[in-house]
Amino acid sequence: MVVAAWFAALVVASVAHRWIPQSGWLLVHLLGLGAASNAILIWSGHFTDALLRRPAGGARRAETARLITFNTGAVAVVAGMVTGWWPAVLVGGCVVAGVAGWHGTTLLRRLRTALPSRFGHTVRYYIAAAAMLPIGAGIGVAMANSGLPSELHERLVLGHAAVNLLGWVGLTVLGTLVTLWPTMLRTRMAQRVEPAARRGLPALLVALVVGVAGAIGGMPLVTAAGTFGYLAAAVYVLEPHLDEIRRKHPADFATLSVLAGVVWLFGSLAYLAVGLAMSSTTLEAAEAAGAVTAALLAGFLVQVLLGALTYLVPVVIGGRAAVQGAMAELERGAPWRLSVANTGLLLCVLPVPSLVRVASSVLVLVAFASFLPLAVRAVLVARRMRGMPSKPGRPEPVAVRRRLGVAAAGLGVVVLAAAAGVVADPAAAGFSTTDAGDVTASGHTTEIEVRIEGMRFVPDVLDVPVGDRLVVTLVNTGTDRHDLVVANGARTGRIDPGETTTLDVGLVGGQLDGWCSVAGHRQMGMTLTVQPAGVVDDLAHAEHESGAETMSLTSSDVSRSLSAHPGAGFVVHDPVAPEASADHRITLTATDEQREVAPGITQRLWTFGGTAPGPTLRGKVGDVFEVTLVNDGTIGHSIDFHAGSLAPNEPMRTIEPGESLVYRFTATRAGIWMYHCSTMPMSLHIANGMFGAVIIDPPELPPVDREYVLVQSELYLGPEGGEADADKVVADEPDLVVFNGHANQYDHDPLSARVGERVRIWLLAAGPNHGSAFHIVGGQFDTVWSEGDYRLRPGTGGSQTLGLFPAQGGFVELEFPEPGRYPFVSHSMIDAERGAHGVVEVREE
Q: Is residue 234 within 8 Å of 269, Cβ to Cβ?
């Protein structure tokens, strides 16, 4: 029941994995730490008693205590990882390791106190396996600490996987098959099985130690040698069982599932050993291990686990009629389940289109998950038949022809699912979805580099002369695996972050669409267009003929503006910090506004409340803010308040023009927090003016004589009177860096103070791409508060700069010693020269 409960949780998590934090980690550990480890604890103790001829049930209370304690620790580990609370992982990992040590010590004591047994070497496998889990758990706890360097983390991942999967699980399986396999086949044990098992254990342990040492030491060749050694030792241990298979062919689900699992183990280890041997870095070794994850976990571990349970569940039930009934239930659809699971898994590990892989993985999940309802039916049938007379003899085996027919039906289901995936995305499978037509080759080749940035191809429009051959160099600068598929059937393979590949698209004769074929990525905007040259030029010509102004601002225009004075009627953005209000029911209206951003330069900004930055809100810890966002703009917008902590899917959703939403949050922590539009592309929305500040005062914040708010941001100028240039945003090439939305405005209308007054300046680095190094020329800060804490308080020490990354904030305090004009800048000097400059004018008392 415990094993089934963990397996049921695994099925649920597999279905809902897209919405679960740490879903990949969770799926692996619900299987390995949950279902498999409980099965090992339960059955290794049971088999030890049977093999050593000990009375069953004598230590039932201690075994129950071990199971309860182990599962408490396992749940703590899972909860700690999902919530990101490392102390829970630490405590849970220690509990798991302690129970494993307790279990191994118990088995060792039973072995030493028992009479000599023919199968004592099997118990030694269990003891060696139990010694592996504390090591694996310790490595896992260390890995969960986010402070580890990335390369060390990758090394520990390899070591952790090897110790747990090949040590804790692998040794247990290999030792159990010594006696369980011939029992499942109902045949006598082959002659060489026992000596092979006895001699193989030391070889397995030596190979495992070598492999783990190589993994943790960052030596892929040593890891490969250990993997080869483990594979050779496993083959040596299991090879004698071939004689049993020749005498009695596997014919039911239990034996065929276990046999398939062992085949997946051998194939996976061989592939892994070759991949490790070809790796030159830890990252490449980790990628080689990742490539066999599904094969080892689903192919080997799940199939061995389900096969063993299919045989053992009826045995536990007891009673001949009940056993026969339970076995009949667990055999339902066995050929179909085996065929679907193994064919689907094969497609999952091969380089097939994403939709084919998704469809295959769903079928594999269905095939494996069907064990749960069958197990429930088996128990119910067995309870009903307990005490009834059994049928004489053994149940008649299902005809071979019928079994083959059912298996073929399962294969057909997988083939149909794969075909459906190809039909849904034929270009991803290499089939053209466009009519190439008659294209005259120009003899020229156009080469274009396309970068993957987040969920975008940059550039996403490729202008290619008609008749040219297009060659795309795809560079993955993102954080996920991606590919590029073009509608004419050309496609790349999947490339990892940091990798580069080349795609020959072929001759271009018309418009072609391209996209990433990873499930869901196309829908998230990972598309591009191959555009025959001339179309964009024609569009620009049409805009010119219609009177549209598309002339871009030049660097000379920007330079002249930075040295000019604002025109008549210019109103400076009020820098004075607002007082904290008691009522935080606010309406922010998103509007498009023409605003001067530097003398003589106007842009059409997207704003909150008509200004960029938007209005500064202020309150105290514990205050509740209720903000009504009204979209009076021309495109969809949203809002994200960093000052609140809540699930983003509803309050931060994009609303279309004419719509509104209410965003309610409680300020639980002090700081100067950013708010901004989170509609994609988020960088463009922020760059075009959609940002502002929320000040939540630290408790017992002392009063000062003057208090100002400065929000630093970048401007990526489009045409005069137009919107931000998206290409400049992507390239991180700002034209202006400004305080409170206008270049150098506080040079012309300075902040004011008097000698001896205490001045506090709040600063927020809104970005979207640059931080700030805030400095007042001639001033020294005696108080610095940054990102929730005081970095400096009045004393003998001082500070010259408040350094902030994008979206960070804080404040500084100082007193000016004498009258004069004190410039303030971002001391990233190129930003100061782009407009992040102002003056504090200090007068006598």
A: yes
Sign (positive/negative) of CA torsion 12, 17, 23, 27?
positive
Q: In what order do the strands lie in the sheet with 789-792?
A: 736-739, 706-715, 758-767, 809-815, 783-786, 789-792
Alpha-carbon distance of 773 to 836, in angstroms, equals 10
Long-range pairs, 180-187, Cβ under 8 A, ≥24: 180/47, 180/308, 180/311, 181/241, 181/244, 181/255, 181/258, 182/241, 182/244, 184/254, 184/255, 184/258, 184/311, 185/244, 185/245, 185/248, 185/250, 185/255, 186/248, 187/244, 187/247, 187/248
Q: Which of 13, 40, 15 is nearest to 27 (CA)?
A: 13
- Among 575, 663, 661, 673, residue whose Cα is nearest residue 617: 673
Q: CA 729 to CA 456: how far, in whole Å?
A: 13
Contact 467, 441 (CB under 8 A): yes
pLDDT for 106 equals 92
Nearest 5°: the CA angle 268, 272, 277 is 155
DSSP code at position 612:
S
Phi first, then psi: give them for residue 294, nearest 5 degrees: -65, -40
Please confirm whether the linkage preceding 459 is cis (ω < 30° from 0).
yes
Closest C-alpha among 287, 292, 272, 197 to residue 238: 197
Q: How far apart are CA 771 and CA 801, in angstroms?
A: 12
CA atoms within 13 A on the CB side of 345: 28
pLDDT at residue 547 is higher than 70: no
Distance, CA of 620 to CA of 670 (rounded, Å): 7
Does residue 762 contact residue 695 with C-beta atoms inside 8 Å? yes
d(CA 806, CA 713): 9
**How many Å apart are CA 564 and CA 371, to the nearest integer?**
77
- CA nearest neighbour of 720 among 614, 561, 834: 561
Q: Give the angle subtended at the CA of 430 by the CAs of 424 and 434, to the nearest 5°.
A: 75
Distance of CA 557 to the CA centre of its chain: 44
Rounded Cα–Cα distance for residues 628 and 364 (Å) = 47
pLDDT in tens, 761-818: 999 999 899 999 999 999 999 999 999 899 999 988 899 999 999 999 999 999 999 9
Q: Where are the alpha helices (DSSP H) in 617-696?
A: 682-687
For the chain, how big is the Rg over CA atoms in Å?
34
Residue 561 sits at φ, ψ, to 5 deg, of: -65, -40
* 3-class SS letters over 423-469: HHCHHHHCCCCCCCCCCCCCCCEEEEEEEEECCEEECCEEEECCCCE
Q: For residue 440, what are the CA distances in angstroms to 95, 463, 537?
A: 71, 17, 22
- Mind listing the pLDDT tens digit for each residue in 640-693? 999 998 888 788 888 888 888 889 899 999 999 999 998 888 888 999 999 999
User: What backbone torsions phi and psi does residue 488 show, to the nearest 5 degrees?
Assistant: -85, 5
Q: Which residue has the higher pLDDT, 541 or 225?
A: 225
CA dihedral 318, 322, 328, 331 (to 10 degrees): -30
CA distance 32 to 159: 15
Q: How far is CA 392 from CA 312, 323, 324, 398, 410, in A?
A: 22, 13, 11, 17, 33
DSSP 162: I
User: What is the C-alpha to C-alpha distance for residues 608 and 629, in angstroms, rounded to an integer?
Assistant: 9
Which tokens sit at 615?
Answer: 């209005």
Asked if 307 and 261 count as a contact pair (C-beta separation under 8 A), the reply is yes
Q: What are the residues whose beta carbons fall under 8 Å from the beta carbon of 426, sequence distance 6 or more?
A: 432, 433, 489
Strand partners, 464: 532
Query: What pTM, to 2 d.p., does this model score?
Result: 0.58
**Strand 706-715 vs strand 624-631: parallel, antiparallel, or unpaired?**
unpaired
Q: Are the C-beta atoms of 669 and 696 separated by less than 8 Å?
A: yes
Name residue 469's beta-bridge partners: 445, 507
